[in-house]
Automatic annotation (TrEMBL):
<dbReference type="InterPro" id="IPR001222">
    <property type="entry name" value="Znf_TFIIS"/>
</dbReference>
<protein>
    <recommendedName>
        <fullName>TFIIS-type domain-containing protein</fullName>
    </recommendedName>
</protein>
<dbReference type="GO" id="GO:0005730">
    <property type="term" value="C:nucleolus"/>
</dbReference>
<dbReference type="Pfam" id="PF02150">
    <property type="entry name" value="Zn_ribbon_RPB9"/>
</dbReference>
<dbReference type="GO" id="GO:0006283">
    <property type="term" value="P:transcription-coupled nucleotide-excision repair"/>
</dbReference>
<dbReference type="InterPro" id="IPR012164">
    <property type="entry name" value="Rpa12/Rpb9/Rpc10/TFS"/>
</dbReference>
<keyword id="KW-0863">Zinc-finger</keyword>
<dbReference type="GO" id="GO:0006367">
    <property type="term" value="P:transcription initiation at RNA polymerase II promoter"/>
</dbReference>
<keyword id="KW-0862">Zinc</keyword>
<dbReference type="GO" id="GO:0003899">
    <property type="term" value="F:DNA-directed RNA polymerase activity"/>
</dbReference>
<keyword id="KW-0479">Metal-binding</keyword>
<dbReference type="InterPro" id="IPR001529">
    <property type="entry name" value="Zn_ribbon_RPB9"/>
</dbReference>
<keyword id="KW-0539">Nucleus</keyword>
<dbReference type="GO" id="GO:0005665">
    <property type="term" value="C:RNA polymerase II, core complex"/>
</dbReference>
<dbReference type="GO" id="GO:0001193">
    <property type="term" value="P:maintenance of transcriptional fidelity during transcription elongation by RNA polymerase II"/>
</dbReference>
<dbReference type="GO" id="GO:0003676">
    <property type="term" value="F:nucleic acid binding"/>
</dbReference>
<feature type="domain" description="TFIIS-type">
    <location>
        <begin position="70"/>
        <end position="109"/>
    </location>
</feature>
Length: 113
């Protein structure tokens, strides 16, 4: 974040169309400086795998296109069949599996060590 040396106001991004560059300019005077980077703002969304369960519908257990496993035990009802898919949560170094029980709809994330 840069500030005007005269007014101490925050400089705002402006396009210099003639030179095709990005500049930061003061709104109160003519002061401006060339931006060090062409990136003005980056919004990085990070979501933990456990947090994604709230946005996953239990109805996905009826989706015939999802992979199924008969080798997992539901913690809620003990049923052995569940659908699963890879979570795209970015807060982890891996892509954990999200499971949905085909019997009761309980959702859980595979334990990664």
């Amino acid at each position: 974040m840069s500030f005007c040396p005269t007014h101490s106001s925050m400089l705002v991004p402006k396009e210099d169309r003639k030179n095709k560059t990005l500049r930061y300019a003061c709104k109160l005077c003519d002061y401006s400086e060339v931006a060090q980077s062409n990136l003005v703002y980056r919004n990085q969304l990070k979501q933990q795998a456990e947090d994604i369960l709230g946005s996953v519908s239990s109805a996905l257990s009826d989706d015939p296109t999802l992979s199924r496993s008969d080798e997992v035990n539901c913690e809620e009802c003990g049923h052995k069949t569940a659908v699963f898919f890879q979570s795209t949560a970015t807060g982890m170094n891996c892509l954990p599996l999200v499971f949905i029980c085909c019997n009761c709809g309980h959702k859980w994330v595979s334990k990664t060590d």
